[in-house]
């Protein structure tokens, strides 16, 4: 692994980008069929609170000066996922309100924490919108470690995740531990969001999760195909976005999302041309 | 307290806050009850794209820099809601994905606009998280007029909105023009978001519309009570938050939202103690 140390910032950014370009559409596909894509927005905003809390701890107390805000962000995302579940139970008639509640409370807390520490705007912007220039060596290690764990969990629980995504009741009858698999799924989501924030930033993670998947859905007929196409689109967005941002000198995270948006629009147009507009009747199997 | 009377800009912020402290939760009641709380989040994020676009135009065409970017933000919010409705029809089985697609895509486009306009500076931060010094005299009067319009519309169309929120089919059957009322509702929501964001910022607007309502829901016995509780909670949190932020030197938008969250947590705890598990 000596060679990682010789990487330039661009190579480090490309590597981290390709890892998330692969993982986020996979997660997106599961979220999509479970009709839960909006949760990624809620969790990404909670991650911001974790990051700001980490930075405050780092700067205010001597004990935590070693802390990497990525870890506190990850913790906050996991914590947030469980709060959403609780809130859903409390507002049964208006379940969807649980995401806005968490999202706005999280941003409020972040805003207050941000005003407590004298960190430059540029640094906040790099967490909000991502910055490929700031991918350091330790971030590459974080990406490798967390990426490997995520991939492993996905492979190990693929069948269970598939089962609960399509028919939770049937899955529980056939003996899938639904509660536990749901927990694994939540954990996966938090891991992927924490991974993505260096490159695309908190506010753009959601786009990388949903856009490639939504584009794939318009073309693919089976879940497996949707998964593969989603990964293809995800990687294309990341690579295209990084390249374009390098030559056009614009924000990388934004350019990655714009590439995803272009792919999505192309998929939409092709669906119209092929007369697949009545997608209403089609469900992924 | 005296600072708020001495400095003009603080006085205008205070008046503006007092207005949105009532307006946002009242609008929020309809937003939440019509199950469109996510839509409010999406619209507020799209407003950012409009603001970024306005900044970009101001850079290319200097006379346009004098416009308040918030108005472009409102236009984008309305446009975004049309796109969401379209996408909902395309993704029939997975309707809720439409909001996520537009919400996240919009921020991406916004970020590209901002970086083209070289706008990663202090101004952007106050658009995102709000700032008390952002309200000028002209802004204040525009805000006053627009909020009066929204309140008037709410009173005029109260019956239609109420009916559509609780029994859409019956409402349509009895001749309420659903499409037109819905369009009006979206425009009103976009207006309220645009008005409120000048104080609390884009990322926190939806908090003002959902948190007081979610807290009020734990107690309210009727729709009318829901309005009153939400408006009172909203107003108290906005004013206390504003003063607290001023003296503690924290971000005003964040402080207001944290107070709102605190009230929500308390009301959940109290109503649970009273034996009310879910609403």
Automatic annotation (TrEMBL), chain A:
It is found in: Cell membrane; Membrane. It comes from Alkalicoccus urumqiensis (Bacillus urumqiensis). It is a multi-pass membrane protein. Belongs to the ABC-3 integral membrane protein family. Keywords: Membrane, Transmembrane, Transmembrane helix, Transport. The lineage of its organism: Bacteria, Bacillati, Bacillota, Bacilli, Bacillales. This is Metal ABC transporter permease. InterPro entries: ABC_BtuC-like (IPR037294), ABC_TroCD (IPR001626). One of its GO terms (biological process) is response to zinc ion. The chain crosses the membrane at residues 12-33, 45-64, 70-87, 99-120, 140-158, 170-193, 199-220, 227-248, 254-273. The keyword tRNA-binding does not apply. One of its GO terms (cellular component) is ATP-binding cassette (ABC) transporter complex.
UniProtKB/TrEMBL annotation, chain B:
Gene3D superfamilies: ABC transporter involved in vitamin B12 uptake, BtuC. It holds the Pfam family ABC-3. GO terms for biological process: response to zinc ion; transmembrane transport. Its main location: membrane. GO terms for cellular component: ATP-binding cassette (ABC) transporter complex. It is found in: Cell membrane; Membrane. The chain crosses the membrane at residues 12-33, 66-85, 97-120, 140-158, 183-206, 226-248, 255-274. It is a multi-pass membrane protein. The keyword Membrane applies. Keywords: Membrane, Transmembrane, Transmembrane helix, Transport. Belongs to the ABC-3 integral membrane protein family. This is Metal ABC transporter permease.
